[in-house]
UniProtKB/TrEMBL annotation:
Organism: Cyprinus carpio
BP terms from Gene Ontology: proteolysis; regulation of potassium ion transmembrane transport
Pfam family, one: DPPIV_N
Protein known as: Dipeptidyl-peptidase 10 (Non-functional)
Domain Peptidase S9 prolyl oligopeptidase catalytic: 422-521, 530-595
Molecular-function GO terms, alphabetical: potassium channel regulator activity; serine-type peptidase activity
Coiled coil: none
Signal peptide: none
Length: 608
C-alpha cells in the first residue's frame, strides 16, 4: 500500500503548566504509531516535521527523538532530560511564556541536515506550587520551576547536532562578556547550513549581543552589541539576511526629532558597519524579507500598519505598497511574502471588516463605529486617546465611560485594527463610551514613551490615566467612569481606583498583578475607599500571575474597607476557560454600576 502523509500535526493544549500532547495524523489505510524505541502508547510532549521529505522530530520525557521518515526507527538524540529539571528541545515555563514565546526550543537547518536545540537546566530554580482543588477528595498540587525576581534563573545551553552523521552535539559558545547563569537566548535563526544567528541577552535586559555562530567550531562571532540605560525591546526579532549571509538587516533605535528615538531599518555587513535605510518620527514594526527590502511600518500614523519597500542603494527610495489598497476601509495590515518574493499575502485587520488577499509585488502601486481620537500633551509627550461612542450618542445626555487598560507594557490600544469584543456590546446596546489610552509605557511611538516607565511602573501610568479621565469628562457628559484590565493592567486599575483625583467609581481586574513591596505605597496613597465597587476575577491554577497576588490584594482591600467582589475559578489558568460566564459577569457588573450612578442626579451649579 502507498502511504500518503499529510503535513499535519495535531497540537492539543492540556491543562498542564506548559506541556502538550501531540499526535501524527496520516491519510492512509496504514497507521504508524509515533513511539520511542521499546515504548508503546506513550504521551509525547511535542512533535513536528523537519525541512526535508518525511523527517520527524518529537520530544518524550524531555529528550529529543528523530525519525528520517515515518517507516524508520526512532533515534534518540539526547539523554540528559529529567522531568521538571532538564529540558531538551522544548521550553520550561520561563522560556515559553517570557523569552521565546513558544513551546518548541529547536530549529532545523535549511536542508534538514542539522538540528539546533536548547538545553534548559532548572535544577537550581525554585519551584512554584499550584494547588488543584476539584475532582478529588484531598486537594493535590503541581510544582514547576518559576524564577521570581532575585531568584536563580535556569542555565541555558545551545547545541547543534548533525542527523546524518555521528550524532555528536556541538555546543555553541556564549560571548565572554556574559555569565552563563544570568543570560537569555532570545532568538535563534539559521542563516546557512553551517551558520546560525543567535541573540544573547543579559539578565537586566540592557545589553544584547547579536552573533553569528559556526557549527564546525562552535564559535560565536559578535556582529552587533546593543546597550541601554533602561531596557532593550524586540529581542525576538529575526534579522533578514542576504543569500550569501554577508549582509543582514535589523531595526535599531535612531534619534529623530530631538531627543526622541524610533526603531528604523538598518543594514549591516563586513564592508558596511551600519547604514540606516529609514528615518523619521515613526517606526518600522516588522522586517518581512530581503529583495529590495520589504517591511511593515506605522509611518502613515502610529495607529496604522502598512507594507513598504525600500532600496538598499543611496538615496534609499521608500514606497508604500498598501496605502492605496482598499482605502479607507483597510489601514492596519499584516503581511507574508512568498519564498520566491514574487507575491505577498495581505491580511487587512481593520478598521473595516478584516479580509485576506494575495497580490503580485510587481503590480502593487502602492464601516466602523464612530470614534474620536484626541491627543493629550503631558510633560511634552503626546498621548493618544480613543473614544468609541454609541450609535445614538447625544452630547447633552449622560453617558457612562468604560476605560480599558492594556495587560502589559509595550502594547498599543489606539490603532486601526478591527475590533469586535464584549466592550462593543456595551457601546452599541447600553450607550456606554469606551476609552482607550496609549500613555507612557505603550509601544510603537518611539523609545521615550515606551521607556518612560522604567523603574516607575504604576506611577506615571496612573498620572496619565487620571488626565485621561479628566479629558473624558470634558469631551462628553459623563455620569460615571469605570475601568477594566488584566494582569499588569489589573495592577494599574487597583491603584487608579484608590488614587486621589481619580473619577473612577467601579473597577474590574482579571488576574491582577500585586507586588507586596508596593503595599506600603498603595496604603499611603489611599484617600478614597467609600462608594467604590471592585470586581476581582482569578483562576487558582494561573501559572503566569499566581493566585497569591489576588490573596495579597484582597487582604489589603479588606484592611482599607473597600467594597470588593471576587470570582474564583478553581483549577483554571491565566486564560480562563469559562469565558462566556466571565464575560456575562463583567457586563452584569458594569450594568449594575452604571445603573446605580445614573439613578443619582448630576450636581448642578447655582448659575444653572
Amino acid at each position: 500500500l502507498d502511504l500518503q502523509l499529510t503535513n499535519t500535526v495535531l497540537h492539543i493544549q492540556t491543562g498542564n503548566v506548559h506541556f502538550s500532547f501531540c499526535a501524527c495524523v496520516c491519510v492512509s489505510r496504514e497507521v504508524h504509531e509515533l513511539n520511542p524505541p521499546e515504548v508503546s502508547d506513550c504521551v509525547l510532549q511535542f512533535a513536528s516535521w523537519g525541512n526535508h521529505s518525511q523527517q520527524l522530530v518529537y520530544i518524550f520525557e524531555n529528550n529529543i527523538y528523530y525519525q528520517p521518515d515515518v517507516k524508520s526507527s526512532s533515534l534518540r538524540l539526547t539523554s540528559s532530560g529529567r522531568d521538571g529539571l532538564i529540558f531538551n528541545g522544548i521550553t520550561d515555563w520561563l522560556y515559553e511564556e517570557e523569552v521565546l514565546h513558544s513551546s518548541a526550543a529547536h530549529w532545523w537547518s535549511p536542508s534538514g541536515s542539522s538540528l539546533a536545540f536548547l538545553t534548559i537546566n532548572d535544577t537550581l530554580v525554585p519551584n512554584m506550587y499550584l494547588p488543584r482543588f476539584t475532582g478529588m477528595l484531598y486537594p493535590r498540587g503541581q510544582q514547576y520551576p518559576y524564577p521570581k525576581a532575585g531568584q536563580m534563573n535556569p542555565e541555558v545551553t545551545l547545541y547543534v547536532i548533525s542527523v546524518n552523521g555521528s550524532m555528536h552535539a556541538t555546543q555553541l559558545l556564549y560571548p565572554d562578556s556574559l555569565q552563563r547563569r544570568d543570560l537569555y537566548i532570545s532568538m535563534v535563526q539559521w542563516v546557512t547550513d553551517e551558520c546560525l544567528a543567535v541573540r544573547w541577552l543579559n539578565r537586566p535586559q540592557n545589553s544584547s549581543i547579536l552573533t553569528l555562530c559556526y557549527t564546525h567550531t562552535g564559535k560565536c562571532v559578535p556582529k552587533h552589541v546593543m546597550t541601554s540605560d533602561k531596557w532593550i525591546d524586540r529581542q525576538n526579532e529575526k534579522p533578514a539576511f542576504s543569500k550569501d549571509g554577508e549582509t543582514f538587516f535589523v531595526t535599531l533605535p535612531l534619534r529623530s526629532g530631538g531627543r526622541e528615538s524610533f526603531r528604523h531599518l538598518t543594514m549591516m555587513s563586513e564592508q558596511i558597519s551600519m547604514r540606516h535605510l529609514t528615518s523619521g518620527t515613526w517606526e518600522v514594526t516588522e522586517i518581512l524579507t530581503y529583495d529590495e527590502k520589504y517591511f511593515l511600518s506605522n509611518e502613515a500614523g502610529f495607529s496604522q500598519r502598512h507594507l513598504y519597500r525600500v532600496s538598499t542603494v543611496d538615496p534609499f527610495h521608500r514606497k508604500c505598497l498598501s496605502c492605496s489598497v482598499f482605502k479607507p476601509h483597510c489601514s492596519f495590515y499584516e503581511a507574508s511574502v512568498s519564498p520566491d518574493r514574487q507575491a505577498v499575502l495581505l491580511n487587512c485587520r481593520g478598521p473595516g471588516i478584516p479580509k485576506t488577499t494575495v497580490h503580485l509585488l510587481s503590480n502593487m502601486i502602492g464601516e466602523s463605529k464612530h470614534t474620536y481620537t484626541h491627543t493629550n500633551v503631558l510633560h511634552q509627550i503626546s498621548l493618544k486617546l480613543e473614544l468609541s461612542f454609541p450609535p445614538q450618542f447625544e452630547e447633552s445626555k449622560q453617558h457612562p465611560v468604560l476605560l480599558l487598560l492594556d495587560s502589559h507594557p509595550g502594547g498599543q490600544q489606539v490603532n486601526e485594527r478591527f475590533r469586535l469584543d464584549w466592550a462593543d456590546v456595551l457601546v452599541s446596546c447600553d450607550d456606554v463610551i469606551v476609552a482607550r489610552l496609549d500613555g507612557r509605557g505603550s509601544g510603537f511611538q518611539g523609545q521615550q514613551i515606551l521607556q518612560d516607565v522604567y523603574q516607575r511602573l504604576g506611577l506615571v501610568e496612573t498620572e496619565d490615566q487620571i488626565v485621561n479621565q479628566t479629558v473624558c469628562v470634558c469631551v462628553c457628559v459623563c455620569v460615571c467612569v469605570c475601568v477594566r484590565a488584566q494582569a499588569y493592567g489589573g495592577f494599574l486599575s487597583s491603584i487608579l481606583l484608590l488614587s486621589h483625583g481619580s473619577e473612577l467609581r467601579c473597577g474590574a481586574a482579571m488576574s491582577p498583578v500585586f507586588d507586596w513591596q508596593l503595599y506600603g505605597t498603595l496604603l499611603l496613597n489611599v484617600t478614597r475607599s467609600e462608594n467604590l465597587r471592585f470586581l476581582i476575577l482569578h483562576g487558582t491554577a494561573d501559572a503566569n500571575v499566581h493566585f497569591q497576588h489576588t490573596a495579597e490584594l484582597v487582604k489589603l482591600l479588606s484592611m482599607i474597607n473597600v467594597n470588593y467582589r471576587s470570582q474564583i475559578f478553581p483549577d483554571e489558568g491565566h486564560d480562563v476557560i469559562s469565558r462566556r460566564y466571565t464575560l456575562h459577569s463583567l457586563v452584569s457588573f458594569y450594568k449594575e454600576c452604571f445603573a446605580d450612578n445614573l439613578s443619582v442626579p448630576m450636581e448642578t451649579s447655582d448659575d444653572d
